[in-house]
Amino acid sequence: MAAEATENAVGPRIVRGRVDSLSLYEITDYELQQLEDGSIGGTYLNFAIFFVSMGLSFLATLLTAAQLSDRAFTVFVVLVVIGFAAGAVLVVLWLKTRRSMSRVLKRIKDRCALSETAASIVAEDVTEASDESAG
Q: What is the Rg, in whole angstroms, of the alpha carbon atoms belonging to the chain?
């Protein structure tokens, strides 16, 4: 790759390094919107970790506490159940949103891979045709 320097009388000096090939990915408005919105999966994962940690903390307290009143025991059990249940639901949501974003990106990349395959087949046909006409 050779570096090419261009000087403009009005603007700054621009140094450009050329690349051998460039892949352009065409996307639909819906796919663009999904990419702009991003994935809420990170937030789901953070809250899942919080709730599971909370459930584990209260479970450790239940297992190690010598004497708890009935009321305190009930509150701790409820917090353990809520922590594990909310954590499990949020982990499932995180897995689902993570997969959906991966599917969108894969669909976009697959379109370019199909185009490259078709272009290489056409290039091979042109090469074979030119070899046959020359020979």
A: 29
Which distant-in-sequence residues (6+ apart) come within 8 Å of 127 by Cβ? Answer: none
The pLDDT of residue 120 is 64
pLDDT at 122: 56
pLDDT at 54 over 50: yes
Any bridge partners for residue 14, and if so which?
6
- Looking at residue 66, the DSSP 8-state letter turns out to be S
Q: Could you count the other beta carbons within 10 Å of the beta carbon of residue 61?
A: 14
Alpha-carbon gap, residue 90 to 80, rounded angstroms: 15
Distance CA 46, CA 54 (A): 12
Rounded to two decimals, the pTM is 0.57
Structure tokens at 24: 């352009």
**Assigned token pair, 39:** 């994935």
